[in-house]
Amino acid sequence: VTAIVLSFQYVPWLHMLYAAIGAVVYTLFLVYNTQLLIGNRELAISPEEYIYGALSLYVDIVNIFLFILQISGAATE
């Protein structure tokens, strides 16, 4: 819904809300993917899938960084 509103008119607080929700979601993805790498639970990544594990952590961290940049950019405007 926020993406549709932001495509027509720029609303600073809505953009910041969208970025904050995205940062929280990707932080939860980071926790989940880290737990998959550690294992010792019902779900775990096998040692043969180390490239997938490293790539998923990398993508999560990059997305968190991008959302934090959006939050800081919206805060300065």
What does this structure look like?
The protein has 77 residues and is mainly α. It has one domain (2-76). The chain has helices at 2-8, 12-38, 50-76. Helix 2 (12-38) packs antiparallel against helix 3 (50-76). The longest helix has 27 residues, at 12-38. It is elongated and about 45 Å long.
Describe how the helices and strands are arranged.
Layout: H1 2-8, H2 12-38, H3 50-76
Helix pairs in contact: 2-3
Strand content: under 5%
Mean pLDDT: 88
The ordered string of helix (H) and strand (E) elements is: HHH
- The shape, in one word, is elongated
Taking the sheet with the most strands, its summary is: none
Spans where pLDDT lies below 50 across 5 or more residues: none
How many strand elements? 0
Give the % helix: over 70%
Structural class: mainly alpha
Domains (count): 1
Number of helices: 3
What is the terminal-to-terminal distance? 22 Å
Q: Any idea what the radius of gyration is?
A: 16 Å
